[in-house]
Specification:
Blueprint: E1 5-6, E2 13-16, H1 24-29, E3 32-38, E4 52-56, H2 70-82, E5 86-90, H3 97-110, H4 114-122, H5 132-143, H6 154-170, E6 194-198, E7 204-207, E8 238-240, H7 248-251, E9 257-261, E10 268-273, E11 277-278, E12 284-285, E13 288-292, E14 296-300, H8 302-310
Parallel strand pairs: 2-5, 3-4, 3-5
Antiparallel strand pairs: 1-2, 6-7, 6-14, 8-13, 9-10, 10-13, 11-12
Helix pairs in contact: 2-3, 3-4, 3-5
Length: about 325
């Protein structure tokens, strides 16, 4: 009888499909003590009577939120391994949902990327292939540094907000007021390169960290190269932004689109469209919340000047990188 598909390495971690549970001799030989089921199908509870069992009820569809379960599934897997037994993670086919959960665990355990973890799992089970939505969630999980809790992460909260916007957009509605995320109320303390001020009254309306990049439509001469997201260029007539708290009175009215007024002088400074807006460069931004360059002045931020002055001579700002620990697998 063939053995179970064991993730390569020292861990007693296995991956499979639903029918793996009927291979009782193989399960006993592997000393399986914990079983993680990642599927929504009705289950025969008798299959799990000898094991500690956890169920994550999700479908194998791209818009399913599997990300919110990664911290709990990681803890369950670690608990089983710490107890000295084997852990089986399964879904219906042992291809997408179960693979995503095992990848999330390996990312947290070994500080590796989703693609590295997937390549490692495929050494044991070549059919593993999380759907595109799950892979995107794993990428986000990696950018969040695989935290013990995702709910408190601004990146996760923003992701949930964008999901709500997309759902509302699909229904032809504006998002519910309580589900709109006003970014400046959640993310603070970041340095800004420049400020956007009302040209009439000089009131600061936004700073550069709240700008949203977009992909311009390529011209005939550069269609051979894939466009990349970019900050507003000279060809863009608008600055696209995250929702900011001064926009609250307008955005919470439940309208699909409308105008934005400066809260100080009430000059029309921009517009919004929850269903999306096309920039003058040809790129689309969803949702489209914008300030018109003709009504706004771009002014270098004083905070960025202070940051430059306080930086020690010769110091170079670097971002932490996720090191590869494949040798520990």
């Amino acid at each position: 009888m063939a053995l179970l598909d064991r993730v390569p390495g020292d861990l007693k971690l296995y991956i499979g499909g639903l029918f793996t549970l009927r291979r009782r001799d193989a399960l006993q030989q592997a000393n399986i003590t914990h079983v993680l089921s990642v599927l929504r199908l009705p289950l025969d509870r008798q299959l799990f009577s000898p094991f500690k069992h956890m169920v994550v009820e999700v479908d194998d569809v791209e818009d399913e939120n599997l990300l919110e379960h990664f911290p709990a599934t990681n803890r369950f897997i670690q608990e089983g391994l710490d107890g000295g037994g084997g852990v089986l993670v399964h879904c219906a086919m042992g291809k997408s949902r179960s693979a995503a959960c095992v990848i999330a665990y390996l990312m947290q355990k070994h500080n590796i990327t989703p693609s590295e973890a997937l390549a490692h799992i495929r050494q044991a089970r070549s059919i593993c292939e999380p759907n595109d939505g799950f892979m995107a969630q794993l990428e986000l999980y990696g950018r969040m540094n695989a935290p013990q809790s995702v709910e408190d992460s601004p990146a996760y909260q923003r992701w949930v907000y964008l999901r709500e916007v997309e759902l509302s957009r699909a229904c032809g509605q504006a998002p519910e007021a309580e589900k709109i995320r006003f970014e400046d109320e959640h993310v603070a303390g970041q340095s800004a390169d420049f400020e956007l001020r009302c040209r009439k009254c000089r009131r600061t309306l936004a700073t550069s960290q709240y700008l949203i990049s977009h992909v311009p439509t390529p011209t005939i001469n550069d269609r051979t190269e894939a466009p990349t997201p970019a900050a507003p260029s000279s060809s863009c007539a608008h600055y696209f932004l995250d929702p900011l708290s001064w926009m609250r009175p307008e955005l919470e009215q439940g309208k699909l689109d409308g105008r934005l007024e400066c809260p100080k002088c009430h000059t029309n400074v921009g517009k919004y469209a929850w269903q999306g807006m096309q920039c003058s460069c040809g790129g689309w931004v969803v949702p489209g919340i914008s300030l018109s360059k003709g009504r706004i002045d771009e002014v270098k931020s004083r905070t960025s000047d202070v940051a430059e002055i306080r930086r020690p001579p010769g110091a170079i700002a670097t971002l932490p990188s996720r090191g590869s620990a494949k040798e520990n697998l």
